[in-house]
Design goal:
This protein is α/β, with parallel strands linked by helices and 236 residues long. The protein has two domains: 156 residues, Rossmann fold (3-Layer(aba) Sandwich), CATH 3.40.50; 62 residues, no CATH class. It has ten helices and ten strands. A hairpin with a 2-residue loop joins strand 9 and strand 10. The radius of gyration is 17 Å and the shape is globular.
Length: 236
């Protein structure tokens, strides 16, 4: 598999306070990769630095072979990175259909792009509620809408921050099933989530971040076999 995203020696500061200290990671085309760690360890800051919501102070970010660090979030999005942010951030006063149509763009020039009909086929619950406003949806439905909205941009890489936070177990399983299907169809995925027992089943590789540094990286097989890591870095 070829490299899709390459992050090297990334450092990010909030004013005089440094949050990231040389973060390096890679994602190959077609991979599902996770960022793991306790709250406040730098996972979200890493994602925001990748997608241009925070300007890194040092290091490089390459996407599809081109440097994107220093570009605006809009330009990075148009390059083919789609973010489902923590809290979903859908438009509450737009309908499900309007939320989706507002983001429609075949940024990856896909031969079979994501369309409204295709998203509704993938998420039939959204099709049933397509005239409902965003603030009338359950948390699970909002997360499906947030994912569907990003799919409408036809990204090369899907990033999810706290992919199943606050969702009931059955809904979490539905989201994981959807992500697995998207990944098997060839979409690369980077996600933050805390349910390690599930993540070692559905993802290929993992990075554990502690105090702004990568303290461990490896495969699902390696992580699943070393539960001492779970206790040391994840508090599980």
């Amino acid at each position: 598999m070829s490299a899709l995203l390459e992050v090297e020696a990334l450092e990010t500061c909030y004013g005089a306070s440094q949050a990231l200290f040389g973060i390096s990671l890679t994602i190959a085309a077609g991979e599902m990769v996770t960022l793991l760690g306790r709250n406040g360890m730098g996972k979200t800051t890493t994602i925001k630095s990748i997608v241009g919501l925070i300007a890194p102070s040092a290091g490089t970010v390459r996407f599809r072979g081109e440097r994107i660090d220093g570009l605006s979030a809009d330009r990075i999005g148009r390059a083919g990175i789609g973010l489902v942010p923590e809290g979903r951030q859908i438009f509450p006063n737009l309908s499900v259909r309007e939320n989706l149509v507002a983001w429609a763009s075949n940024r990856s020039a896909a031969a079979e792009p994501w369309t409204l009909a295709r998203v509704f086929e993938f998420f039939p619950g959204l099709a049933e509620r397509q005239q409902h406003m965003g603030n009338q949806l359950s948390g699970g439905e909002q997360q499906m809408l947030a994912i569907g909205r990003v799919l409408m941009t036809n990204p090369h890489l899907l990033i999810l921050d706290e992919a199943t936070e606050g969702l009931a177990p059955l809904v979490r399983n539905e989201i994981w099933t959807c992500l697995t299907a998207l990944n098997k169809a060839g979409l690369a995925i980077l996600l933050i989530d805390k349910y390690v027992r599930t993540l070692v089943r559905i993802a290929h590789r993992h990075y554990i971040i502690e105090r702004g540094r990568v303290h461990w990286q490896g495969s699902s097989e390696q992580l699943g076999a070393d539960q001492a890591l779970w206790h040391r870095y994840l508090g599980l």
